[in-house]
Amino acid sequence: MNTPELQPATPADVDALGAGVVKRSTRLADGRELIYFDDPGTTLGPERAVDTRDLAARPDTATMRQDILTGDWVSVAAARQHRAFLPPAELDPLAPQTATNPSEIPSVYDVAVFENKSPSFGPALTDATDSAPAASDPPRGLDDLAHLGLGRTRTSVGRTEVVCFSPERTGSFGTQTVTRARTVIEAWADRTAALSALPGIEQVFPFENRGEEIGVTLQHPHGQIYAYPYITPRTTRLLDSIDRTAPDLFARILEFEQAGPRVLLQGEHWTAFVPFAARWPLEIHMLPHRHVADFAALNAEEKDELAPLYLRLLRGVDALYDSPTPYIAAWHQAPVHVGRDAVRLNLQLTSPRRAADKLKFLAGSEAAMGAWIGDIPPEDAAARLRTAIEGVTL
């Protein structure tokens, strides 16, 4: 392939965000959005390479089907069958493009976010570029989705984005610098606000899958953001719990955990702990002390403290064993239109690793019935994690 020429962004495509982070927006060759988030004090110049690849048309937006037994919606995204699977380092699709690697990102970057090439949820006509497929039968609101019926389908309207934490080919969020972690947090906040504003979006979910044992297919340090056209089943159950208890449920959880034996880290704005009824052998929750619905609502002080605190937490997880621990780091946010005064932004990090050489698999009781059996008392897990975190330096 030819080396693409550099092109400066227009002023309309550049925004100054918090903490000195600069956002630069552009498009990939097939029309998908690509956004660079530059570190404060970045060594990168203002110009970015143009994506000159000859790409196939974007796949049709997936269709979701309703499970009448639960009311859940299942997106059937056949295009995901063709996504990259553990490619060699020289063909890393998340590394900056080279003459021999026609990757997804044409320029060197600090943090980059782009629309997934094989999305589980795709664009609707109202937010699509000219190259995007149409949504033939989008949801008609939450009441429409709540209705039960056999054979019900809707177009999987939404968006899925890839968040590249670094141009390096290996690592994870926990291997980044405090400055880079802060840039990613600013990117999460920006994308949460932007995706929440799209028509038809009901919930936005940033997360990181880490490790082949979790199902990761790319070794590059990255996470994802899903923008759903419905409120997810997990959050629906949470809203029900809030209705059955009190609207200040998260404040009560925080007070309960801060007074108990499972606290791992506590700052001025955040507390991390092993939850009272942890399901997984390794499970960590983290809450902001102030009620905050999502990343977009965090203030500068909360973001500043989160960067080093989260890094200490992740590095403590890796200090438990001699090899990196697989995990899912799930940032739960309030739905876009309901429950925002009650559902608080919170991290739920889970790992199936129950020993150096053992994993917990979801067998009959957990997988079939949703009835969990814990392997490790949460207090014991918290004690081991505290010891590991104490040895972490940034």
TrEMBL record:
Pathway: Carbohydrate metabolism; galactose metabolism. Residues 123-139 have a biased composition (Low complexity). The keyword Metal-binding applies. Residues 122-143 are annotated as: Disordered. InterPro entries: GalP_UDPtransf1 (IPR001937), GalP_UDPtransf1_His-AS (IPR019779), GalP_Utransf_C (IPR005850), GalP_Utransf_N (IPR005849), HIT-like_sf (IPR036265). Its EC number is 2.7.7.12. It is an enzyme of class 2 (transferase). Keywords: Carbohydrate metabolism, Galactose metabolism, Metal-binding, Nucleotidyltransferase, Transferase, Zinc. Residues 91-231 form the Galactose-1-phosphate uridyl transferase N-terminal domain. Residues 261-386 form the Galactose-1-phosphate uridyl transferase C-terminal domain. It holds the Pfam family GalP_UDP_tr_C. GO terms for molecular function: UDP-glucose:hexose-1-phosphate uridylyltransferase activity. This is Galactose-1-phosphate uridylyltransferase.
